[in-house]
Design brief:
about 100 residues; 2 domains; 4 helices; mainly alpha
Length: about 100
């Protein structure tokens, strides 16, 4: 793409110009995106993969569902969470005892 922009004269088709503008927009979007968030495939990446015959796999993003139990990757985190829940229950019991007294 950089070689293309260094030329004196360039002949484009309408489709080629649309693809070039989409590619420039995608590069700009990628440059200024939040790096901590997983991103989806950009339009130009999908077109490139389709042209090369690469199957696009949907990126699964996990969303928080409060109805499902938490799954921890590490056992120590699970232990910390259980201790936190116990402490929270003890505080509730103490508050109810204080209120009833």
């Amino acid at each position: 793409m950089l070689k293309l922009l260094k030329c004196d004269r360039v002949v484009f088709t309408i489709e080629g110009l649309e693809q070039l503008s989409q590619d420039i927009n995608d590069r700009t979007h990628n440059l200024y995106r939040n790096r901590k968030i997983k991103r989806t495939l950009l339009e130009s990446e999908i077109q490139r993969r389709n042209a090369k015959g690469i199957k696009t796999e949907e990126i699964e993003t996990s969303t928080y569902d409060p109805t499902k139990p938490l799954k921890f990757k590490f056992k120590i985190l699970e232990n910390y969470f259980q201790e936190y829940e116990k402490q929270k229950e003890n505080e509730k019991k103490e508050k109810t005892q204080e209120n009833s007294s």
